């Protein structure tokens, strides 16, 4: 299975939704740290969808 969205990480609660896990961050530094940790834990890639929203994808 390839190209699967594993999670979303965001600072903007009103900008995301759906059925995958969503991690809410307090600021951009927290967003970057959380995305980095999830990349390593999930063996995934973090992609910026738009400012304040990162998508964790398994390629």
UniProtKB/TrEMBL annotation:
Domain of life: Bacteria
Pfam families for this protein: YIEGIA_cap
Annotated organism of origin: Tumebacillus flagellatus
Stated name of the protein: Uncharacterized protein
């Amino acid at each position: 299975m390839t190209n699967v969205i594993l999670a979303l990480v965001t600072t903007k609660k009103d900008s995301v939704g759906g059925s995958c896990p969503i991690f809410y961050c307090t600021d951009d530094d927290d967003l970057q740290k959380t995305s980095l940790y999830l990349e390593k834990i999930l063996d995934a890639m973090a992609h910026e969808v738009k400012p304040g929203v990162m998508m964790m994808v398994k390629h």
